[in-house]
Amino acid sequence: MQARQDGDIPASVPPARQLGRATLLAYGFGAVAYGVKDFAFSSFLLLFYNQVIGLPASQVGFVIMCALLFDAFVDPAVGFLSDHTRTRWGRRHPWMYASAIPILVAWLLLWNPPEWSHSAMLGWVFAMSVVVRSAVSSYEVPSQALSPELTSDYDERTRIMAYRYLFGWAGGLGMLIASYGIFLAPQPGQTSGLLNREGYVGFALAGGLAMLVAIVVSALGTHREIARLPDAGVARTTLAGSFRELVETLRNRAFAILMLAGLFYFTAQGISFALSNYLYTYVWLFHGMAYTLVGLVLFGGAVIAFLIAPRVARRFGKPDAAFGFMLAAAVLLASPYVLRLAGLFPPPSSPIMLPLLFTIFTINSACGISSTILFASMMADVSEDSEARTGRRSEGVFFAGAFFVQKCTSGLGIFAAGLILSLADFPDGARQGAVAEATIDRLTLLFAIVYFGLGLVAALLYRRFPFGRAEHQARLEKLSEQG
User: Does the CA dihedral 424-51-286-174 come out positive or negative?
Assistant: First the structure.
């Protein structure tokens, strides 16, 4: 293949192959690390610093969102540097190995803050959020960028991502179940243990060790694939040239559409995660085992997504399948809150409320996860589209963008959740069953409107993704002819 510009080094196209089960399992298992981080960050961080430590929800949300601004620089930097890393262990694995210990240390510090003043504590949240996210980026971006290098097969990429998201959700929900059932289980006389600060010590240690093990096992398990990865060559360039390459790479219409779709959906997901404990505790009045069961219910949705997403994408194509899944997810999650406001949903005292709610949660989870599997699979396909335009493979940069919008789950989502709580006039230190009905109504109305609106926009953007299987295959053939 001929270089498009001076200094560009043409990259070979990965073979269109199916991966062995051992490689799929090892690669997928690495996503446990992000799953643990994401669920704990999204579901407990706002609650911990607001209800346990005592900081105002809106201020905590704002500080966490500000930390997200650093990711706008960290993620593409990691992706770009990973793309340009040349070692005997390839481009991705050195980053994966090096990230394990920093993630563990930063995670423990985040959940064990010092006894400082109000403003100093907000500074601690900001600093530790930046360090945790940067350390996670140093693993997750190179690890995700590995996926399009493993194969160029259109359907196999969806299968790879199905494994990744299955393990990611398994890790996150496993942590969620352990949190509700072990670390934050209610003590005698309590209906909820979510406000027990001592429980967060074991919570932090278990999560940090789980992330460490997942990263090391995945890196070792995929190490043998290094010899089979395409050779991206060695490009010598100046700092100014590197910046021009980055800008040229990011000016890709397919990438821009996915970034926007992901930004809307992952923000909606972040709001849902950040408010989940508020909704479970104060709207649906969960007690005891209901918290544990919700984790199992959501994991059931992840298993369904693992089974159906590749099949539906093969039948209808990735863009149309992602559109349908995303639209269904938006409708499903908003529906019980809308029906509750209309007086048409069973109240918490009804024996059918929990089974009905869990059924909706299962189907919503399956649809939402299926859409994210296809989001990641389409992002992998953008690699060849970019190579055809620029002469370079820039998987790291593209998946840095994908990872950035995913982290909006714990940035913009938490910030928006804090605003929703403030607009609803939700009290600090609230007791279950003692919050005014008007406050609960405002909370549910705001949540339903915001979640559905963001999800609808994401669905419409998925529909506008500019190419499918036929265009991908034609592009692979053209690149092979030029090789």
Answer: positive
- pLDDT digit string, tens, across residues 4-27: 343 333 346 788 889 999 999 999
Cβ-based neighbour number of residue 344 at 10 Å: 10
Structure-token match 């490009």, residue found: 235
- Overall pTM surpassing 0.70 (yes/no): yes
DSSP string covering 166-195 = HHHHHHHHHHHHHIIIIITPPPTT-S--TT
- Cα(170)–Cα(174) distance, integer angstroms: 6
**pLDDT score for 237:** 55
Among residues 288, 30, 293, the alpha carbon closest in space to that of 177 is found at 293
> What's the pLDDT at 10?
38
Paired tokens of 178:
């352990």
Q: Stretch 103-109: mean pLDDT, rounded? A: 97
- Structurally, at CATH architecture level, domain 21-482 sits in Up-down Bundle (1.20)
Residues 6+ apart with CB under 8 A from 73: none
Place of tokens 């199905």: 162
Whether the Cβ atoms of residue 357 and residue 284 lie closer than 8 Å to each other: yes
CA–chain centroid gap for 241, Å, is: 31
The amino acid occupying position 406 is Q
Give residues with Cβ within 8 angstroms of 403, minimum separation 6. 75, 137, 140, 141, 144
Query: To which residue do tokens 């423990």 refer?
Result: 108
What's the rounded Cα separation, in Å, for the pair 13 and 232?
9
> Cβ distance 63 to 125 under 8 Å?
yes
* CB-CB contact of 394 with 386 (8 Å): yes
**21 contact partners, CB below 8 Å, separation of at least 6:** none
List the domain boundaries for the chain.
21-482
